[in-house]
UniProtKB/TrEMBL annotation:
CDD domains: GT20_TPS. Coiled coil: none annotated. Keywords: Glycosyltransferase, Transferase. InterPro entries: Glyco_trans_20 (IPR001830), HAD-like_sf (IPR036412), HAD-SF_hydro_IIB (IPR006379), HAD_sf (IPR023214), Trehalose_OtsA (IPR012766), Trehalose_PPase (IPR003337). It comes from Agromyces fucosus. In the C-terminal section; belongs to the trehalose phosphatase family. Belongs to the glycosyltransferase 20 family. Pathway: Glycan biosynthesis; trehalose biosynthesis. NCBIfam families: HAD-SF-IIB (TIGR01484), PRK14501.1 (NF011071), T6PP (TIGR00685), trehalose_OtsA (TIGR02400). This is Alpha,alpha-trehalose-phosphate synthase. It comes from the Bacteria. GO terms for molecular function: alpha,alpha-trehalose-phosphate synthase (UDP-forming) activity; phosphatase activity. Gene3D superfamilies: Glycogen Phosphorylase B (3.40.50.2000), HAD superfamily/HAD-like (3.40.50.1000), Trehalose-6-phosphate phosphatase related protein, domain 2 (3.30.70.1020). It catalyses: D-glucose 6-phosphate + UDP-alpha-D-glucose = alpha,alpha-trehalose 6-phosphate + UDP + H(+). Its EC number is 2.4.1.15.
Length: 748
């Protein structure tokens, strides 16, 4: 049976997240206590380590399967991360995951090392499950949110998301290889998969070759124009989107692995491992999932021939092979396990002695501490994958080798080989060449080992997993990971700006000075931000302006600005300058359009719980912040389509949880220009969080400073994370401004 959809539509009503990660599995494992209660345990991996900082910074949510078939779980919070489980049935697990993902796509994308299987019912399940993931993400994402989809199991999600939520910024990262067109073209659903991926704004791959394979497939099948890593993808309305497809090689938490390796208890365990193996002169180590792409058979064959020919002796060299269980319900993997275990048994029978075992074969996984101890105990790391997107085991071994000792033998068919050039690079299909590399590694002089390892470690340290995620997100949004506080570059810009003669500090209100709230009338600036504004307003040659989409009366009520503050409401339609507010005298045609607009929005919003219409001097706003995010998006689209059909001359703008219609065109950019002229400012700082603030950022000049609050694409050159960081920013500016322009302001 199919997994049932969530029974309640209100599960996600209050879950409006600015950052969403979508992956097949959640970063937690389900555990059932002895009395039947549900508990969750973190399953930290490289991806979690990379994304945890940005998830916390953006109050993000993780969408994925909980690892239990035929079970539904409500959204919950675990260790500071919001978790949104997606249900899968047992049949979907067989068809979508074990079938299409791992018996169709996995072998196809790994150069058909094993033959792929093509079944239409598997494809149907893949489509159905991808849609369920996309719908869960659409429900959870706030307007303009960043959604980062992970890996080959969810390649249709970007397009499905874009069709449902065109406001989102969508990224996709493919953790496995992408094959050459001659191989990829075998897939019966090749166009659908490419079209699914092209729904993203940025598509990331492990290697430049993978990105090139993808781009060539798009050209062959769709004929879209490409310029380097940029693809021109036409939308349904004829407008062309620019999609970036390029390499972002993933990495590891190198500092975390080195910290573990330096722990005395882990080092003691490494000595125990060597002693248990008889203290051989050389320990060679292989660590892999039991998968036909990992080249385990080639490694065993080469090692067996070296023992047979006497080039290595069982008294001097032991091979430890960790082969963690993988996809054991798939027939190909069951056959592989039987074959590997038969080879290990034969080689041990042929070459082991009573005191020395040729191969220590371990068919189970280990916790991270034990794996680090194994790395420390080993002298040579064998990575002989026939095809691998990256292979993080190679990087883990390097990170743990803090004494600059150890040798890495690395397949040239791994993504890691592009970066780790000081390894001994091998073609694992060339058994004679592999044997020579293993002998070279076993007998390499200490000085040469140290030279190579130092170079490898420098590369792994400089390109860790945090840099990977930051680089991808910076390409996607222009922001990267936004840490709390004021970044050094922004701090320097504040110091420079504070020296200007006449400064205008213009600030958005909701989401910038005040945290976003469900009821707009409850919004208030943080105490620190308000105090900093008062300091700035009292400083010589400094003016403060609050620029908002709110009507001016509403803005005055919630902002309670200090005396002398300039005000802009209704996206620049209303201005309050030193001479008082600007009167809005609407013409007869504008009044008629406003009356018509009122009828339309009242009808559209009628019967939708949480939706309400706000009157403004020259327009109306339809608020949807309290509506479930997917329903809110549908409601905004319906309102926009009807207004454009019936009253096409209106100005339309979207924002966070709101869509606004104005009978008199204006925007925050025009407002900022008028405020600058009125104040006679020689430089301006503008801070805002919404898409409507982009007009103001566009109006800034070279000597000005733009600061975006939060994630999302922006023209602003600088970022901060939250209103608390805006307060920090304003405090620093006030202090710097007082130091250079102290005393009461001389401006009128």
């Amino acid at each position: 049976m199919n997994a049932p959809e969530p029974a309640r539509d209100d599960l996600y009503v209050d879950a409006a997240y600015d950052m969403i990660v979508v992956s097949n599995r959640l970063p937690v494992d389900y555990l059932q206590g002895p009395d039947g209660e549900t508990t969750w345990k973190s399953s930290p991996g490289g991806l979690v380590t990379a994304l945890e900082p940005v998830m916390r910074a953006a109050d993000g949510a993780w969408v994925g399967w909980a690892g239990v078939a035929d079970r539904e779980f409500d959204p919950f919070e675990h260790d500071g991360i919001n978790i949104i489980p997606v249900p899968l049935s047992e049949s979907e697990l067989e068809e979508y995951y074990e079938g299409f993902s791992n018996d169709t796509l996995w072998p196809l994308y790994h150069d058909v090392i094993a033959p792929p299987s093509y079944h239409r019912e598997w494809w149907d399940a893949y489509v159905r499950v991808n849609r369920r993931f996309a719908e869960a993400a659409a429900r959870a994402a706030s307007p303009g949110a960043v959604v980062w989809v992970q890996d080959y199991q969810l390649q249709l999600v970007p397009r499905m998301l874009r069709e449902k939520r065109p406001d989102l910024v969508i990224g996709f990262f493919n953790h496995i290889p992408f094959p050459a067109y001659g191989i990829y073209s075998q897939l019966p659903w090749r166009r659908q998969v490419l079209d699914g991926l092209l729904g993203a704004d940025v598509i990331g791959f492990q290697r430049a070759a993978d990105a090139g394979n993808f781009t060539r497939a798009v050209r062959r099948l769709f004929g879209y124009a490409t310029r380097g890593s940029v693809l021109d993808v036409p939308g349904p309305d004829g407008e062309v989107r620019h999609v970036v497809a390029r390499q972002f090689p993933i990495s590891i938490d190198s500092a975390g692995f080195e910290e573990l390796a330096r722990r005395p208890d882990v080092q003691a365990r490494a000595h125990e491992i060597r002693e248990s193996l008889g203290n051989p002169e050389t320990i060679m180590l292989g660590v892999d999932r039991l998968d036909y792409t990992k080249g385990i058979r080639h490694r065993l064959k080469a090692f067996g021939e070296l023992l047979r020919d006497g080039r290595l002796s069982v008294e001097d060299v032991t091979l430890v092979q960790v082969a963690s269980p993988s996809r054991e319900r798939v027939e190909t993997y069951r056959q592989l396990r039987d074959e590997i275990e038969l080879m290990v048994g034969r080689l041990n029978g042929d070459h082991s002695t009573l005191g020395h075992q040729a191969i220590a074969y371990l068919h189970h996984g280990y916790p991270r501490e034990e794996m680090v101890a194994l790395y420390l105990a080993s002298d040579v790391m064998l990575v002989t994958a026939l095809r691998d997107g990256m292979n993080l085991v190679a990087k883990e071994f390097v990170a743990c080798s803090f004494d600059d000792d150890g040798v890495l033998v690395l397949s040239e068919f791994t993504g890691a080989s592009d970066e780790l050039r000081q390894a001994i690079l091998v073609n694992p299909h060339d058994i004679e060449g592999l044997k020579d590399a293993m002998v070279e590694a076993a007998h390499m002089p200490r000085k040469e080992r140290a030279r190579r390892m130092r170079a490898l470690r420098r590369r792994v340290r400089e390109n860790d997993v945090a840099k990977w995620s930051s680089t991808f997100l910076k390409t996607l949004t222009g922001a990267g990971i936004i840490a709390s506080g004021v970044p050094d570059g922004l701090d320097a810009a504040i110091t420079r700006l504070a020296r200007t003669d006449r400064l205008l500090v213009a600030l958005d209100f909701d989401g910038t000075l005040a945290p976003l709230v469900d009821r707009p009338e409850d919004a208030r600036a943080t105490n620190r931000a308000r105090a900093a504004i008062e300091r700035l307003a009292a400083t010589d040659d400094t003016r403060v302006a609050i620029v908002s989409g709110r009507a001016l009366e509403s803005l005055k009520e919630v902002a309670d600005p200090p005396a002398g503050t300039l005000m802009s409401g209704s996206h620049g339609v209303e201005l309050q300058l030193d001479t008082g507010g600007v009167t809005i005298d609407l013409r007869d045609a504008e009044l008629a359009a406003l009356e018509h607009l009122t009828r339309v929005l009242d009808e559209v919003a009628a019967g939708v719980d949480g939706a309400w219409v706000e009157w403004k001097p020259a327009g109306l706003a339809l608020h949807t912040r309290k509506v479930a995010p997917d329903a809110a998006s549908d409601l905004q689209r319906a309102a926009k389509a009807r207004v454009e059909a019936e009253i096409p001359e209106l100005t339309v703008r979207g924002g966070k949880g709101v869509i606004e219609f104005s009978v008199r065109p204006s925007d925050k950019g025009e407002a900022l220009t008028r405020l600058r002229q009125h104040a006679g400012a020689s430089a301006v700082m503008y801070v805002g969080d919404d898409v409507t603030d982009e007009d103001a950022f566009a109006a800034l000049e070279s000597e000005d400073l733009g600061v975006k609050v939060g994630q999302g694409r922006s023209l602003a050159a600088h970022r901060v994370r939250s209103p608390e960081d805006v307060a920090d920013l304003l405090e620093r500016l006030a202090e710097a401004r007082e130091a250079t322009h102290g005393g009461p302001s001389r401006w009128p």
